[in-house]
Batch of 2 targets.
Target 1
Amino acid sequence: MAEYRPAAPDQEAFLEELVAARLLVRTGVPGVYGRGGAFEDVRLRFDDLVARLAAPDGPEVLRFPPLLPRRQLESSGYLKSFPHLAGSIFAFEGDEAQALAQEERAARHEDWSEYQSQSDLVLTPAACYPVYPAVGARGPLPAGGVTVDAGGAYVFRHEPSGDPARLQMFHQRELVRIGEPETVEAWRDAWRDRALDLLRGLGLDADFDVATDPFFGRSGRMLAASQRQQALKFEIQVQIAGPEPTAVASFNYHQDHFAAAHGITLADGGVAHTACLGFGEERIVLALLRTHGLDPAGWPEDVRSRLWTSA
Ligand code: ZN
């Protein structure tokens, strides 16, 4: 069972305020909340702001449901690196007697998993995951590669926590660049600066740093060390609630990992490289609420004009 991380006192107090203001709605499961209209409005405005900022790159827009074919996850290496965060979908395929037994057990809130079989689907762990197989299936990349706007997609991470900024399901606003190594690296570096300007322009005290993924187990520590040494991952952090700042955006250079797994090749036949940028939308809304107050109508005018302008 995934280890529950209790909230720091400041995080618990912030969650109470958010619930009282009807910005978040408790479901009874830590890290899974409903959202009120004001929260969702800010999230969608931020989503739109990223789309406007990305528009000059001329990205191809792709949207996927928050589910992946199980085979795609199996080919991605995710279960080796992050088995503790993955969510897979099981469903009932039994007979009437088993259906009855399952229902009786479920009604008593006991374990009914023995009546469930693994389906062909898993929950999407990162918004860029469906993009790579889709691009790989098209054959070699056009000259210059492709840029994809993967939208603000729901993703799942099995890490129950009392911190309102650590959700089990949340929207990741992703942009993806696929092409030659130098192109991809330059894109990532340019977006690191753009994203920092974007968040600072919203009044957030944002900083970036080299980061590592929460790889699983002992071999994971080696992967993290190598990731840090090669500076493959950067994060932008903002102080929300709690003792430590929270990562609100990450920049990931995968080198040829996803291209090799999904057969993405350059126009000349060489293996492509990929990078992605993901904004944690709920975390950015929480950072804005924490910084500027729980009523967006009272936020500073320059912050409001950036979010509530359609130009
Ligand atoms: Zn990604």
Note: The mean pLDDT is 95.
Target 2
Amino acid sequence: MSIFENLDLIQQKFHSEIETITSSEALFQWKAKFMGKAGELSEVLKGLKDVSPQDRPKIGARANELRDDFEKKFSERLKSIEGQEIAKKLAAESLDITLPGRVRHVGTVHPLTQVTDRILDIFYRLGFTLITGPEVETEFCNFDALNVPKDHPARDMQDTLFLKNGHLLRTQTSSMQIRAMLSQKPPLRLVTTGAVYRSESVDATHAAAFHQLECLCVDKNITMQELKGTLEFFAKEMFGHKTQIRLRGSFFPFTEPSVEVDCSCVFCAGKGCRICKHSGWIEILGAGMVNPAVFEAVGYESSDYSGFALGMGIERIAMLLHGVNDVRLFTENDIRFLEQFT
Ligand code: DAH
């Protein structure tokens, strides 16, 4: 086979093989096979020494032609492969900007906690200090020392959740008055808050577990006037400066005298509406002057000291403040309800 024929064959082979190569890396390796020092073209051109001198320039020209052709083909093919490779890479890394973003749910403080914090803040400004205590209580702190008679219906199995060990789940935060007085000497200006439990059948206005907030103030010469001033300040700070309060005589075993405290209706400003049952007043809490029997039970000298106490239901205040008509909403954790308090 003549050297010319050989060169033709290499060219054909080059042209048909180049189309089968699909990566730039493989393309460079393959190029060396034809055009490198030990490549097929160089091999053929080694035969040049056996060719007659007059034929040599023709073969040289043909070889140059082939080189140019190979280079041209090679760079065309390389360009096309690289184009494909870039397109492939872009497709793999592309961002779909039409996809909705990830929603970040931001939590908020529970409405009952928000209300508790507001109430606490009002009493802090009056110089009250926060104390906390156990939800599992002794009968002594929850009832006996608070002057609740042994046969009082509140102690009944139907109202109080007794535990097997003889203790109970506290039914009122008033138990903390006893703990405070047993561990501290007067003067006291304390506020406490937390969950309380009752054996209650649950409906829109009754829960078996709810929250109370309680204040106790003990010092020399504390009078009802002091209680009234505290209540007035609280009501105005909580419900607005136009709010009025009214004290109605009532009964609690641990206070004497005892009062129930109403504030002018938050919804109709005292004019009378459905919420206040057209009376213009809404009951918000219980209070009174500490019963000397309670002082006796904790070892305070009842002739030297006097004091007042007050207690309220957090759920009740929150319902009033936000116009919520079902206490169960606070514990159902329905996000549609909760997100209204952000
Ligand atoms: N412990 C009472 C209750 O659960 C609320 C209460 C009334 C607390 C009068 C007091 C108070 O401190 O003086 O219904």
Note: The chain has a mean pLDDT of 93.
